[in-house]
Task: inverse folding
C-alpha cells in the first residue's frame, strides 16, 4: 500500500511560478499530441485499448482437438452463476470415455455480470473469458449467444484469452470461499500444491498500451 | 427397554434396536453406505464405526444392538479417524468423475467426504483400477468404477423383488457388481436400484443427464398410478416436473416405488393437455373463456334438473369427489363412478410387491363417500332411453368405452372435465380443463383406507383448474355455492359429511397419512406368498 502513496508538497508559496509550471505541462502534452503522435486518447473503435490478461470479457467455450466442446455439462457454471444467465441442456456423447456434453449452452450476455465465477467453477477449463468488451447488438435475443457462437469466439477473438485462472490459483473467488468455509466450519487448512509458474504465453503484457485492431498480440 | 447415551443424549429404545437406528431417532446421522432402513443389515462398508465405552474396539453401529447403559460416541477422535480412513479406502479406486455423474448432489461419497473426509488423495488417477463404465442394463446404467461394493442392490434384488439379478464378480481390487452376461433388468422395480445405490454406480436411464439434482425441489405427494398410493416426492424445477422418487412410509410402500408409477409424471407436461374450455360448435370445438363454459354447463344442468346424470372419477381427489357429489345433490340427478368396475379391483394385487390392478388412486375414496348410487348401467340405459337431459362427467373414462357411444349420442348435452385429449372426447359438447394431480392439492384414500395428502408441485397448465374448483364454479351458478375456497376447507366439509372421516383434517392426516377404521379385511388385499417383503 505504502508504495502507491503519492506525497504532495502543499507548502509551495503562491505566486507566478506554479502557474507557469502548469502551463508548461499543458504545452508539453499539446506538443506531444500534435507533433509526436503520443495522444492519451485513442480512436475507438478503430483502435482499442489493450487490457490485462485477467480481464473478464465475453466468454469463450474451449474445444477439444476434434472440435467438440470441452464442456461436459456438469452445470457447475450455471449453479454458481449469480446472475443465472447460463442455460444448459445435456446429452450423452457417443464416445463412452467422456459420456456427457452440452447440446445447448447459452449465455445471456445482457444478464451476465462478468464476475468470472463460471470460469472459476469449471472443472474442465471449458469456459474461459476473452478480453473482448464491446457488446453490440440490435436486439436482446441476438445477445443470448449459443454454444457454437461461444466456441467460434475462441478463433475470431481479437483480443486473445482473458481471465483464465490456473488450477489451485488461490485468487479464484470460488476457491477462496470454499477454503474459508473449510476453515471456519471444519477447522481445516488443506495443504496447497505449489503454484505452477505462469507460462510465458499468458504473461500479462504491459497494461494500458494501445494497439491497432488486427495486430497480433505480443507474446 | 434398554436405555443408552449417544453423544451425551439419552434415549430409551425397543429391545433389538441397533445403535444406528437409535441415533436416527435422536436425529444424529452416523455415516453409512451399506445400511438401509428397509434392507437387511449387512455390515460390510465399515463406515458407521462408533466408539462404545468399555469396548476395546470400535463397533459398527448398524449391527450393534443397543444394550442397557451403553455410552456411544459417534464423533470422538477415534471414531472420526475411523470414518476418515474408511472413506479413504473406499475412494482409492473411485474415478472422481463427479462432473458427469448424475448422483452428484445426492451422493453419499460426496456428502461424507465433506463431513468426515477432507484429506488429500494419495492415489494418482492413473494408478486406479479401471472397471467397466456405461454398461446399459435396460432401465439402469451401471458404472462399476463408482461402486463402493455396499451390496444394497444385491440385497434389494434378493429381499424385495426376489429376482437376484446382481452379484459380485472377481476378487480383491477387481471386485465389481454385475448381472449375469450383462442381462438387462426386466422387473418393474428397477428405479429403486438407482435410489438404493448410495453412489453413482446404478443410475436411472430415464433421468440420465436430464437435470442436476440440486436444482430440483421436492414436493410431498402421492403416486396416482394405482390404488396402493405410494408416498412420493415430485421433483420439479421452474414448474417442470423432472422425476418422481419414493418417500419412505413403512405402512404403505416402505422406500420403494414401481417403474410405471415413476413415469406417471409425464402426463403433466404432455402436449395433449387441455389448456382451456372448449365448446362444440356446428362442426368442431371452439375455445371459449372459462366463465362462458361454466354458464353453458350450469344452464344445461338447471334445465335438465332431476333428468341429469353425473359420473365421478376415481382419478379425482376426495375434495373433487365431495364437490362433485354436492353438485349432483344440488341438481338432483343420478350419480355413480363405477365405469369399468374399479371397486372390484381396488384390493387385488398385480404383483407381490406394490402394484394393484385398480389403476385409480382414489377408488376407495369414492366408496367411502358413497358415490356408487345408481349404477353405470342404469345411467347408460336412461341415456339410451332419452331420459337424461344433461350428463356431466368428472373424467373422460366413459367416453372411451365403445358400448357407451350409442347411449351418449341420445343425450342432448354432455360436459366433461378432462385434463388431456382422450379418445371419445369428441362426443362431449363442453370440455372443461381439469388440472392433474401434481397441479392440485388434496387427499387420496388408498386400498387400505389410508387417507393420504398430496401437495401442489407445479402450477396448472393454461386455464386448468382442480376438479373441485370447476364443480364449485358450477354450484355458484346454480345458486348453491360451496362454503369453501381451498382444498383444506373442502376437506373439512367432506369430513363433516362422511362418517368415517369425522374429525379428520389436513393437520391430523400429517405427512404419512391417517389409517381409517375399520380397515378393510387383510385377506382380500394381501397375497400370502411374499407377505414378509412389503
Result:
Amino acid at each position: 500500500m505504502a508504495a502507491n502513496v503519492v506525497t504532495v508538497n502543499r507548502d509551495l508559496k503562491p505566486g507566478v511560478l506554479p502557474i507557469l509550471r502548469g502551463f508548461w505541462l499543458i504545452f508539453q502534452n499539446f506538443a506531444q499530441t500534435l507533433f509526436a503522435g503520443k495522444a492519451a486518447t485513442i480512436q475507438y473503435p478503430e483502435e482499442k485499448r489493450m487490457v490485462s490478461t485477467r480481464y473478464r470479457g465475453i466468454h469463450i467455450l474451449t474445444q477439444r482437438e476434434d472440435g467438440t466442446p470441452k464442456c461436459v455439462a456438469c452445470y457447475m457454471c450455471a449453479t454458481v452463476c449469480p446472475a443465472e444467465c447460463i442455460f444448459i441442456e445435456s446429452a450423452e456423447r457417443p464416445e463412452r470415455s467422456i459420456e456427457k456434453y452440452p447440446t445447448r449452452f447459452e449465455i445471456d450476455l445482457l444478464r451476465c455480470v462478468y464476475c468470472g465465477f463460471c470460469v472459476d467453477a469449471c472443472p474442465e477449463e471449458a469456459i474461459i473469458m476473452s478480453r473482448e468488451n464491446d457488446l453490440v447488438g440490435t436486439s436482446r435475443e441476438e445477445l443470448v449467444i449459443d454454444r457454437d457462437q461461444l466456441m467460434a469466439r475462441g478463433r475470431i477473438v481479437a483480443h486473445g484469452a482473458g481471465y483464465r485462472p490456473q488450477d489451485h490459483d488461490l485468487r479464484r473467488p470460488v476457491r477462496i470461499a470454499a477454503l474459508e468455509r473449510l476453515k471456519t466450519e471444519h477447522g481445516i487448512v488443506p495443504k496447497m500444491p505449489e503454484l505452477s509458474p505462469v507460462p510465458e504465453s499468458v504473461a500479462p503484457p504491459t497494461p494500458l498500451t494501445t494497439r491497432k485492431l488486427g495486430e497480433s498480440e505480443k507474446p | 427397554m434398554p436405555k443408552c447415551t449417544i453423544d451425551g443424549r439419552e434415549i430409551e429404545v425397543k429391545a433389538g434396536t441397533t445403535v444406528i437406528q437409535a441415533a436416527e431417532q435422536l436425529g444424529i446421522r452416523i455415516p453409512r453406505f451399506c445400511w438401509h432402513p428397509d434392507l437387511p443389515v449387512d455390515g460390510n462398508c465399515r463406515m458407521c464405526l462408533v466408539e462404545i465405552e468399555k469396548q476395546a474396539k470400535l463397533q459398527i453401529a448398524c449391527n450393534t444392538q443397543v444394550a442397557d447403559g451403553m455410552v456411544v460416541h459417534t464423533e470422538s477422535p477415534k471414531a472420526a479417524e475411523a470414518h476418515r480412513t474408511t472413506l479413504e479406502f473406499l475412494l482409492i479406486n473411485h474415478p472422481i468423475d463427479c462432473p458427469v455423474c448424475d448422483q452428484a448432489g445426492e451422493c453419499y461419497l460426496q456428502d461424507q467426504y465433506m463431513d468426515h473426509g477432507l484429506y488429500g488423495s494419495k492415489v494418482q488417477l492413473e494408478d486406479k483400477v479401471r472397471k467397466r463404465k456405461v454398461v446399459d442394463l435396460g432401465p439402469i446404467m451401471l458404472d462399476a468404477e463408482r461402486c463402493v461394493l455396499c451390496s444394497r442392490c444385491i440385497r434389494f434384488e434378493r429381499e424385495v423383488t426376489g429376482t437376484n439379478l446382481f452379484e459380485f464378480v472377481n476378487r480383491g481390487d477387481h471386485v465389481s457388481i454385475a448381472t449375469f452376461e450383462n442381462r438387462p433388468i426386466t422387473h418393474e422395480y428397477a428405479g429403486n436400484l438407482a435410489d438404493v445405490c448410495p453412489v453413482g454406480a446404478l443410475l436411472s436411464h430415464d433421468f440420465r443427464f436430464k437435470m442436476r439434482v440440486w436444482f430440483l425441489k421436492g414436493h410431498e405427494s402421492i403416486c396416482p398410478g394405482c390404488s396402493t398410493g405410494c408416498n412420493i416426492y415430485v421433483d420439479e424445477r421452474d414448474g417442470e416436473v423432472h422425476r418422481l422418487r419414493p418417500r419412505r412410509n413403512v405402512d404403505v410402500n416402505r422406500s420403494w416405488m414401481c417403474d410405471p408409477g415413476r413415469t406417471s409424471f409425464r402426463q403433466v407436461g404432455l402436449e395433449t393437455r387441455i389448456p382451456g374450455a372448449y365448446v362444440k360448435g356446428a362442426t368442431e370445438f371452439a375455445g371459449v373463456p372459462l366463465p362462458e363454459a361454466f354458464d353453458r354447463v350450469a344452464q344445461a344442468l338447471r334445465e335438465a334438473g332431476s333428468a341429469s346424470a353425473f359420473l365421478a372419477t376415481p382419478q379425482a381427489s376426495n375434495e373433487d369427489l365431495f364437490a362433485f357429489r354436492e353438485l349432483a345433490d344440488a341438481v338432483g340427478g343420478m350419480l355413480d363412478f363405477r365405469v369399468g368396475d374399479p371397486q372390484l379391483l381396488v384390493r387385488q394385487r398385480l404383483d407381490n410387491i406394490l402394484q394393484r390392478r385398480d389403476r385409480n388412486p382414489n377408488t376407495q375414496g369414492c366408496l367411502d363417500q358413497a358415490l356408487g348410487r345408481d349404477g353405470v348401467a342404469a345411467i347408460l340405459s336412461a341415456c339410451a332411453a332419452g331420459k337424461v337431459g344433461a350428463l356431466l362427467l368428472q373424467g373422460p373414462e366413459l367416453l372411451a368405452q365403445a358400448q357407451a357411444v350409442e347411449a351418449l349420442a341420445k343425450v342432448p348435452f354432455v360436459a366433461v372435465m378432462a385434463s388431456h385429449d382422450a379418445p371419445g372426447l369428441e362426443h362431449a359438447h363442453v370440455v372443461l380443463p381439469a388440472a392433474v394431480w401434481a397441479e392440485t392439492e388434496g387427499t387420496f384414500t388408498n386400498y387400505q383406507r389410508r387417507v393420504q395428502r398430496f401437495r401442489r408441485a407445479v402450477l396448472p397448465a393454461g386455464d386448468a383448474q382442480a376438479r373441485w374448483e370447476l364443480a364449485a364454479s358450477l354450484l355458484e351458478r346454480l345458486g348453491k355455492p360451496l362454503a369453501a375456497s381451498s382444498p383444506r376447507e373442502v376437506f373439512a366439509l367432506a369430513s363433516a359429511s362422511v362418517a368415517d372421516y369425522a374429525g379428520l383434517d389436513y393437520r391430523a392426516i400429517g405427512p404419512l397419512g391417517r389409517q381409517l377404521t375399520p380397515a378393510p379385511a387383510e385377506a382380500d388385499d394381501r397375497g400370502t406368498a411374499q407377505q414378509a417383503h412389503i
